[in-house]
Amino acid sequence: MNGQSPGCFAGMFSAWRWLTGLFTMPVAARNRAGTCSTSSAASAANGGNQREGVPFAALPAEVTAAIAQCLSSYADLCAFRRIDKSRHTALSHTVLLPILIRLLPIVAASLGLGVLVEVPVPQLTQGVAVTVALTRALIEQLSRRLFMLERGGSWARWKPVVEMLYLLRGKRPLVLRDDNFGVFGSRAAFMSETEAVRQWKILSWGATVNQGGQQRPLMDGDSILNQWPGYQLPSLLDSASPLFPHAPFDPADPHTQLDGGTYPNYTSMVAFIVFDRLDEGNHINRIRHWSSYCRASAAYFRAGDRLTASHSDAAQWGAAVFDQKWEDGWHRRLVVLGSEAMGEGHMAVIRLTRTNGRRVEIFTTESAPHDHTRTVVMRVLGDHLGGMVWRQEDET
Ligand SMILES: *[C@@H]1O[C@H](CO)[C@@H](O)[C@H](O)[C@H]1NC(C)=O
């Protein structure tokens, strides 16, 4: 995230004195917005909102340009501001605003979610005078976005699910606005929520699915809309499930249970639910299915092998992998090939199931003759199993 050029540091130091007044919001606004440091609380308490010092506009142009170039993250901005705690009042909000506006797309692009998630700068209503109050409100909104995006943890885990949401929403990118960032009432509530859950709450806000001919929200608080019987509350496990003895336990994205199924992380649980919605709504079509009950066959063995292949194998296929298991030995895996493998806005999914037999199903958004899908299927399954699945040669 810190793409700074070496020359920047000198620039920062020649300008730091003017920048130390950056966050002089009232304490209440700061707490709501979740801005960065507590050091300005003291300055606010000392009457920190009075204006003094050199106006930013009076700085030489090369200094102001250097400042803007050096700050490539919200944390930078906060660190920068902490250099001098004694002077918090030198800068006006009208100076801070363009810096935050410049930071937002940089930080959004660094999340690893690709082009399907947009985080627009809140818009000023045209023709309205840019008053101090308005500027302050904008700074607050921008600060909240930057804080949540930067401190929210690793967002990239959601890339395959975000691609599913794109399809579910009729090929519209996800646009994160005030409502998305408003799902948490306070910075503390945001920070204390499990990382994967807090990210999903923001990403999924406003997502709806068709349930019995009616659009209903996908999430209702912590509950997720399952096809049957409706909203259900997932339970996040606080230690590894015996069904996934080898899956790493990550408290940021823990093993999760929902409706009798167990998942090696919360992300997998969401991926299965959203995928079912895609399938049900015909946003993706099942074009092939194959099954084998022939334990001695090479294809049967190979299907089992693909169910247990490691995640580094999946990375080589260019796929994301999600798992679901039941107590009785059922195991289901989604091998998701998104934009990178299938081209922008397209997806193929290989669903592998172990019951008392082996089952492979192929889903795709690509239209016939499915050449691209065929290629990725062969890559993941190999020519033998891939060929049998493609010709739908069941083994009984
Ligand atoms: C979640 O589990 C799946 C397997 O179901 C795995 O492929 C994926 O990498 C895990 N996600 C994270 C963020 O660890």
UniProtKB/TrEMBL annotation:
This protein's UniProt keywords: Signal
Top-rank lineage group of the source organism: Eukaryota
Signal peptide interval: 1-29
Name the UniProt record assigns to this protein: F-box domain-containing protein
